[in-house]
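thought: user wants a sequence for this fold. calling inverse folding tool.
action: design(structure=
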C-alpha cells in the first residue's frame, strides 16, 4: 500500500522553518499604477471585496509570519536578499523532460504529441535513457491510473483539456507551449513523489512505445468493474457525513475550503491585473510613434519630443518584461493550485468513503447476532485499510503543504523582483 516515506523536496530556508507569509515582502508583490497590492502565502486572508486585500494571514495556525531584522537596512536589494533560499543537494535518480511538440493530422482528428525523454540510474529500468512520444490522452490515462492505485495520495493536476473562453486558440504556439510546461511539471512532480515515482504504470508511461502503451491500456478494468466502483462511490456519498472522522481530517477539509476561496480569488485578480497591464502596454505602444511624428513638425520641440518617444519606448520594453514574468510564472502557478484544490477535496472524499464503509460494517455488526465472526474479520480488514489511508494522506498532506508554501513564496518573491526591476528601469 502507500508508503509513508519522504524524499527531499524543495530546499527549506536555513533553520528548518517552513516558508510562511511575510508581511513586509507581501506589500510589494503585485503592484500596478491602477491595481491593488497583492500578497500570498500558505492561505491568504482576503476580504470579500476584490479591491480590498489584506496582505497577511489572520490564522497563525495556517501560516507563520516572519519579519525583517531591524538592523537590516530597508532597501529593494536588501528586501529581496532576505528571501534568497539555500540550495539543498538534489538526490534525484530520475530526470524527465517534455519537449518538441508535434502536430498530427488524420482523417478523424488533429492532435499534438510531445517528446518525453527520461534519464535514470534506477536498477528497475532496463536502460538509462528512454525517448517516447505521448499525446494529452496518454497523460490523462496515467493520472487516472495513479488515482486508482493510490486513492488517498495527492496526484498532481493536469492542465484542462478544453480552452476557457477568451483564452488562446487550442493549436496556437502560445497554448502548446503553456501546455508543454504544465505536462513537464506534472511528470516531474510525480517523479519527485516518494510513492508515485515507483508506480508501475508510471514506469510504463515513460518507457513503452506507442503500440505497447496502447496494448497496456486495454488491460485495464472492464466497464462493469468501473460501474461497480462508481456505484459504491455514489452509495457512500448518499450516506451523508462520516460519523467517526478524526478531527485532523475535518481540519484539512476546512483548510481546503478556505484555501480554495482565497486561491480562486487570487487567480481572478491576477488575471485582471495582467489584462489591465496588457491594455496599458498596447496604449503606450501607440504614443511613441505619435511623438516621433510630432517632432518632425515642431522644430523647437523636436529634441524634447524625440526624448519623450524614447522614454515611452523604454517603458514599453520594461512593461513587456513584467507581463512576461506574470504570464510565465505567477498565472500558471496560481491556476495549478486552483486545480490542486479540486484534487485535494476529491482525496478527502475518498478517505471519507473508506471511513464510511467501516462505519457501516460496525453498525451492521451491532445489529446482528449471527455471522459475528465474519463481520469481525471484515471490520478488521477495513480498520487496517482506513489506517493505511489515513497515514498515506497525512504524510502526503504535510509534503503538499510544504511544497505549496515553497511555490507560493518563491513565485511571489520572483514577482517582487520583477516589479523592482521594472520601476528601476
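)
observation: tool returned 425 residues.
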Amino acid at each position: 500500500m502507500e508508503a509513508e516515506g519522504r524524499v527531499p523536496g524543495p530546499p527549506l530556508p536555513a533553520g528548518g522553518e517552513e516558508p510562511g507569509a511575510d508581511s513586509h515582502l507581501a506589500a510589494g508583490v503585485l503592484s500596478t499604477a491602477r491595481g491593488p497590492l497583492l500578497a500570498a502565502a500558505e492561505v491568504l486572508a482576503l476580504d470579500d471585496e476584490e479591491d480590498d486585500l489584506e496582505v497577511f494571514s489572520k490564522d497563525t495556525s495556517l501560516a507563520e509570519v516572519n519579519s525583517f531584522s531591524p538592523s537590516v537596512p530597508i532597501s529593494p536589494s536588501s528586501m529581496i536578499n532576505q528571501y534568497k533560499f539555500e540550495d539543498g543537494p538534489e538526490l534525484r535518480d530520475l530526470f524527465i523532460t517534455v519537449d518538441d511538440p508535434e502536430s498530427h493530422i488524420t482523417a478523424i482528428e488533429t492532435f499534438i504529441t510531445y517528446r518525453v525523454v527520461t534519464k535514470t540510474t534506477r536498477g528497475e529500468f532496463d536502460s538509462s535513457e528512454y525517448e517516447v512520444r505521448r499525446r494529452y490522452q496518454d497523460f490523462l490515462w496515467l493520472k487516472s491510473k495513479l488515482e486508482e492505485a493510490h486513492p488517498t495520495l495527492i496526484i498532481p493536476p493536469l492542465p484542462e483539456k478544453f480552452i476557457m473562453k477568451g483564452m488562446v486558440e487550442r493549436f496556437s504556439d502560445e497554448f502548446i507551449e503553456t501546455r508543454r510546461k504544465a505536462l513537464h511539471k506534472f511528470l516531474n512532480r510525480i517523479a519527485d513523489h516518494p510513492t508515485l515515482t515507483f508506480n508501475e504504470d508510471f514506469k510504463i508511461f515513460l518507457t513503452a512505445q506507442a503500440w505497447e502503451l496502447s496494448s497496456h491500456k486495454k488491460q485495464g478494468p472492464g466497464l462493469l468493474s468501473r460501474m461497480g466502483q462508481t456505484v459504491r462511490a455514489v452509495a457512500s456519498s448518499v450516506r451523508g457525513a462520516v460519523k467517526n472522522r478524526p478531527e485532523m481530517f475535518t481540519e484539512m477539509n476546512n483548510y481546503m475550503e478556505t484555501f480554495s476561496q482565497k486561491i480562486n480569488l487570487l487567480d481572478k485578480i491576477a488575471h485582471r491585473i495582467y489584462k489591465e497591464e496588457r491594455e496599458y502596454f498596447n496604449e503606450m505602444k501607440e504614443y511613441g510613434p505619435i511623438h516621433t511624428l510630432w517632432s518632425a513638425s515642431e522644430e523647437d520641440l523636436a529634441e524634447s519630443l524625440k526624448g519623450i518617444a524614447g522614454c515611452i519606448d523604454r517603458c514599453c520594453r520594461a512593461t513587456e518584461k513584467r507581463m512576461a514574468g506574470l504570464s510565465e510564472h505567477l498565472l500558471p502557478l496560481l491556476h495549478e493550485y486552483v486545480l490542486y484544490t479540486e484534487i485535494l477535496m476529491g482525496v478527502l472524499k475518498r478517505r471519507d468513503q473508506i471511513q464510511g464503509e467501516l462505519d457501516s460494517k460496525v453498525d451492521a455488526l451491532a445489529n446482528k447476532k449471527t455471522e459475528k465472526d465474519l463481520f469481525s474479520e471484515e471490520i478488521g480488514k477495513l480498520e487496517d485499510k482506513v489506517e493505511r489511508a489515513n497515514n498515506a494522506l497525512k504524510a502526503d498532506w504535510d509534503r503538499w503543504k510544504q511544497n505549496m508554501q515553497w511555490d507560493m513564496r518563491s513565485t511571489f518573491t520572483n514577482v517582487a523582483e520583477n516589479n523592482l526591476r521594472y520601476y528601476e528601469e
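thought: summarizing for user.
answer: Here is the designed sequence. The first helix runs from residue 23 to 26.
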